[in-house]
Amino acid sequence: MNIPFIPVQASTFASQVDAIFYAMVGLTIFFVTIISLMLATFVVRYRRGSNVDRSNPTEGNLILELTWSIIPMLMGLGIYVWSTRPYAEIYNPPANINTIDVIGKRWMWQIQHTRSGIRENDQLHLVVNQPVKFDLISQDVIHGFFIPAFRIKRDCLPGHYNTMWVTPNRVGKYYLYCSEYCGSGHSEMGGYVYVMSPEDYAVWKSTGQNRQTEASESAVEIGQGVFQKFGCANCHGRVNGVHAPTLYGLYGTQASLTNGTSPLVDANFIRNELINPNGLVVKGWPAVMPSYPIGSDEGDISESNLLDLIQYIKSLRGGAGVPGETVTAVSASQPVKQTKVERAVTVNGKLSKGSSTQNGGTGKGLVK
Amino acid sequence: MSSILLRPDNLHGDTVLDEPNYLNWKSTVASWLLTKDHKRIAVMYFFSISFMFLIGGIAASGIRLALVRPHDTFFSSETYDKMFSAHGIIMVFFFLVPSIPATLGNFLVPLMIGAKDLAFPRLNLLSWYVYIVASAIMLGAVAFGGIDTGWTFYEPYSSIYSNSNVVAVTFAVFLAGFASIMTGMNFIVTIHKMRAPGLTWFRLPLFIWGMYATSLIMVLGTPVVAITLLLVTLQRMFGLCIFDPSCGGDPLLFEHLFWFYSHPAVYIMVLPSMAVVSEVIACFSRKRIFGYEFVAFSSMAIALLGFFVWGHHMFVTGESMYAGMVFSLLSFLIAVPSAIKVFNWSATLYKGNVWLSAPLIFAIGFILLFTIGGLTGLFLASLAVDVHLNMTYFVVAHFHYVMVGGAIFGFMAGMHFWWPKITGRLYPEGWAIVTAVVMFLGFNFTFFPQFILGFLGMPRRYHYYAPPYQFWNDMSSAGATIMAIGFMLPLFYWAWSLKYGEIAGPNPWGAKGLEWTVPSPPPSHNFDEIPLVTEEAYDYKAIHAAEIAGDYSHLQFDHPFAEAKHSDKPTNFEEH
Asked: How far apart are CA A81 and CA B388, in angstroms?
């Protein structure tokens, strides 16, 4: 019988996590051994009736107390520092990596490759040694996107995008799980992750089975269709309009809201603006945007389309960026909207600054 | 009827013989149901929580049965979900939280501090009634439809998606919370105001320190979970939008509020066991607890720090990275007071005269299992490692090491230690030792494989699992069978001892502490006169010295080491 002890390592993150894990296993064995030896020795040696020296029993010792407080604490702090670095890394994906949108719903995983537009259910095909970022959302309850071989997981919350990223580094087929209890199908909500060589991936991409849609359009292109369909373009043009600012160059900047906050314009901000535009009014603009419900009813924006729409908005760089776009957004402003134009300019200033330091996932790399 | 022997260390050797005790002074049903005697309430609580433990244990058996095979066919997934939910909710809210405080705590707090009762006897009785009503609602909800949310009631599943008795169960937990708030209030006031003259804070037994720290958490933490669960109900029944994102609520808010109570609740469960272990170790090593002040203050430090680590349950939820770092750091720090306790307990045995009795064996089991449980908790406090281990069986294994290995072994140690005081009879020592060993082995058999399962990546709350995990799951289920036998044994020998056990006398262990100065079982009013305390806690010096010199005359019952006293044994005992 094949008895498994150790999970396979299939990402660059896995070896880092395992190193810390084994170090902690070592510390655990160390301390449990010390305690066991102390207990066993004292119980046997000082058992009732044994003839040993029991003179001058102590009732306390400050040096000893400090020793066994401080040494374990320092060991713990060492592990803490060691373990915090890789964690921080998950929050900062490298610039311009491929994004995969993940929608969790009871009880399946819907995967959308944003570059190729390929959609899969309960399966995820990745190219080995290529970092990939996941945008995670749930359509109903909280799910957890968990790939043990990669040593990563992150919850998929309803109404809020979480992200994580990983670099798979070993070709193979691995389990994909839902880690957050979500109802009777919880343990069946899973599938497989296939990490493939670039050649195999190319073959799969052109002939692959199990795809929900043909890879005709990228997420940006689908998102553009959504943008048109819901009439977003009527107000949000290439330049600032009468009622609404342009969305070009907006992603990754900080909005300035009438409620005094200045949130980062990211996927969650766009999502919240669609649901609650009157609660998040941008300074200098009238509160005229209607609310766009997100859901599966007639007339709603679906979670899937919203992710595409976000990819599209992300791709709208100030200046050029989208294929075929030649108009520069800022220069074509109208004199009447002078103040807003200035705002747009500053926004663009922040954008270029932000994209060099932040994750840089502001769209440039998505469109080739 | 028990008698008391005159001993130099007995403050109240003048106890009247044949005085009725709290058990037999009146035996009508009404005298129990309307009692204001903390000791009777403790006994009623003991039977109530034991019954709930049995129900929770049956649910656990169902879980282990289902997991014997990767694709279980005994139960539907709906049933499986209801079993682990019932197991978790009953064990946490209806057994572990009240376990030691409501039974041993209720019984011993007044006795240990030289009081005739708790500060608010009626409130104490009300606490039991509230607990009983809550338990009845809980059992009714389980019997008629069950609940499938897990013990964490995560949103928006619990308010929008679950088709089970969420409202009834959250209400039951809400009520049970009030029962523990009442107990906590009572203990705090009692410990502050009713200590016997001379019993200063630093003369208190560490059991009292532990109860005090526990009570603080109960009083400060429980209202938060009560309100949170009420909000779940309001959202579920009236659509009040608190946690459901589809109307602007925030499911993470629920997790924050829930863990703000439920992490400290872990310390509600384990601090009392630590309190028991301090008493047991001191008594059976014949020594004052090493580093008394450190052990006392570490309880308070745990109670305080315990309120600031809840975010470590949420490292993968999308909580801010910086919040994660702070919670992780604090979680590492809270391990320090626990480590202090473990080292001090071990050091107490040094140069002691160690009597390896059943309570001490349970206490040593506690120390070992709690050490493993605590150290594996650090795996989960460490950020990168937690990303992998969170929500897997590693977590399940870890908290069972703390809650079963810790809390229940402590409970068993305490129940055996004070069994003679509560019932007036000794349990059979041999059977108790067998039980301790069987439970220890069965426990490790059950839960150690789950560490490996978790590292391998098996998520918790999975009804069906991938075939490679079967070996460890089968080992776990086999171990659970052994553990179940271990839990059954005390039922028999405790029941046996009530009738046939040797008469204990007031102080069968030669232990220090005011509770051992009164007859066993104690009279209703505890003390004929309020004692004056003139010595430190655990002043075992004289006993230690006597025993080293070979004098075991302070032991009152028939024990190889008590031979010197054997002939002096009172003869007016009933036959057994």
From this structure: 17
CB contact under 8 A, B245 and A157: yes
List the structure tokens of A87.
Answer: 């964690």
Under an 8 A CB cutoff, do B336 and A72 touch? yes
Which residues from chain A sit within 8 angstroms of residue B547, using beta carbons?
48
Under an 8 A CB cutoff, do B387 and A35 touch?
no
Taking Cα atoms as reference points, which of B89, B91, B81, B92 lies closest to residue B145?
A: B81
The 3-class secondary structure across chain A, one letter per residue, is CCCCCCCCCCEHHHHHHHHHHHHHHHHHHHHHHHHHHHHHHHHHHCECCCCCCCCCCCCCCHHHHHHHHHHHHHHHHHHHHHHHHHHHHHHCCCCCCEEEEEEEECCEEEEEECCCCCEEECEEEEECCCCEEEEEEECCCCEEEEEHHHCEEEEEEECECEEEEECECCCEEEEEEECCCCCCCHHHCCEEEEEECHHHHHHHHHHCCCEEECCCCCHHHHHHHHHHHCCHHHCCCCCCCCCCCCCCCCCCCECCECCCCCCECCHHHHHHHHHCHHHCCECCCCCCCCCCCECCCCCCECHHHHHHHHHHHHHCCCCCCCCCCCCCCCCCCCHHHHHHHHHHHHHHHHHHHHHHHCCCCCCHHHCC
For chain A, which residues make up each domain, given as ranges?
Answer: 98-213+352-364, 219-336
Angle at A204 between CA A200 and CA A205, to 5 degrees: 115
Average pLDDT value for residue range B524-546: 89
CB contacts of B463 in chain A (<8 Å) are 186-187
Per-residue pLDDT of A282-328, as tens digits, reads 888 888 888 888 887 778 888 888 888 998 998 887 644 444 333 33
CATH of domain A98-213+352-364: 2.60.40.420
User: Is it true that the peptide bond before B156 is cis, omega within 30 degrees of 0?
Assistant: yes
**Which residues are CB-neighbours of A210 under 8 A, at least 6 positions away?**
A120, A121, A123
Distance CA B395, CA A179 (A): 12
Two tokens at A293?
A: 């419900």
A68 touches chain B (CB under 8 A): yes
Q: How is the beta sheet containing A143-147 ordered, strand by strand?
A: A123-127, A191-196, A172-178, A143-147, A152-156
Q: Is A297 on the interface with B (CB under 8 A)?
A: no
Q: Which of B248, B375, B459 lies closest to A179 in CB terms?
A: B459
Query: What's the rounded mean pLDDT across residues A268-274?
Result: 89
Q: What is the fold of A219-336?
A: Cytochrome Bc1 Complex; Chain D, domain 2 (1.10.760)
Token duo for residue B115:
């009081």
> What are the DSSP calls for B165-190, one per residue?
-HHHHHHHHHHHHHHHHHHHHHHHHH
Q: How far is CA B427 from CA B415, B418, B498, B571, in A?
A: 10, 10, 8, 20
| Beta strands, E only, B177-333 | none
- The alpha-helical segments, DSSP class H, found in B350-469 are 358-381, 383-389, 393-400, 409-423, 429-456
Cβ-based contacts of B318 with chain A (< 8 Å): 154-155, 157, 160, 162
Q: Name the DSSP class of B311.
A: G
ipTM of the complex: 0.89
User: Across the interface, do A148 and B457 touch by the CB < 8 Å criterion?
Assistant: yes
On the question of pLDDT at A209 being above 80, the answer is: no
This prediction has a pTM of 0.88
Count of A-B CB contacts under 8 Å: 275
Comparing alpha-carbon positions, the chain A residue that sits nearest to B544 is A54
pLDDT at A361 over 80: no
Sequence ranges of the domains in chain B: 35-249
Architecture of domain B35-249: Up-down Bundle (1.20)
